[in-house]
Amino acid sequence: MDVFFEPTRGIPFALEVGYFDTISEIKQRIHKKHKIPTSKQTLILNGEPLADDLNIYQSDILDRTLLQLLVEPETPRKIQILAKMSTSKHGLKVEMNSNDTVRRLKELLINQMDGTVPINRLVLKFNGHDLKEDGGWFLHDYDISDGSEIEMGIKPSPATSSSTGSGNPSGGSRRKMRVMVRSKCGSMKVPVEVRAGDNVGVLRNEVMKLVESGGFLVPADGFFFIYKQNVMDEDRSFRWHNVGPGDTIEVFNGSVSGGL
User: Fold this and answer.
1) Which parts of 137-260 are beta strand (E)?
2) Helices and strands per DSSP (H, E), number in the chain
3) 83: pLDDT confidence band, cut at 50, 70 and 90?
4) Residue 82: strand pairing partners
5) Angle at CA 189, nearest 5°, toward 183 and 194?
């Protein structure tokens, strides 16, 4: 069965668990997949912490139960990060605190580039994910640690973007891709066209259009999207979730409070 987790930092996610898996075993799996030390984890159900020696059955955890995951803040430490362009063998080294923000990382990189690039045109990626600075995202939200290598890019200026767009209006980030949306019971599966740079919220709008035309069914009490067993953040792009053409996104009934 699937259990959903709402961490105090980062985005919600899901894990497939068995009825006799212990809380301790689940914490170990969270550590393996999301790099959160087991000693820093506390799982909460209905306001009560779950003991490590209890199993899923004893804890009254059911399919699609939402657990709060309290993550104890790490003690700040110095880390060194290498940021480099994908087309270059050389990069920029910066030393930071482990609890610094993505915004602070950008400021240090811009400083090393003598301010020649506006901060809003600097794009950073780690493990295929765009590093977002809005909302106060921290380095540890992306599991960035000492020795991590960041991919660095520069957005084209507005003038360049508009001239490029007029010559190739269907190319680049404007090109659409087709994803498959499957209902929870698996009885319905429909194709939907979106752009990689679109937020997942666009998919909700497209799905509701299908519902209104009678081409798809969604739970009456609300729904959210799951991709590869992870809850999707509707304020983030398909590219951020690593969704590619032809991938399948599932519709689950209910809602995820607080994190999305």
Assistant:
1) 149-154, 176-182, 189-195, 223-227, 230-231, 248-253
2) 4, 15
3) very high
4) 93, 149
5) 100
* Token pair 């729904």 in the structure block, residue: 223
Q: What are phi and psi of 45, to 5 degrees?
A: -130, 125
Contact 96, 74 (CB under 8 A): no
The letter for the amino acid at 135 is G
pLDDT (0 to 100) of residue 135: 58
- HSE at residue 260, side-chain half, CA atoms within 13 A, is 23
Q: Which domains does the chain have, with CATH numbers?
A: 2-71 (3.10.20.90), 78-154 (3.10.20.90), 176-253 (3.10.20.90)
Q: Cα(43)–Cα(135) distance, rounded to whole angstroms?
A: 25
Q: Give residue 22's pLDDT band: very low, low, confident or very high (50, 70, 90).
A: very high
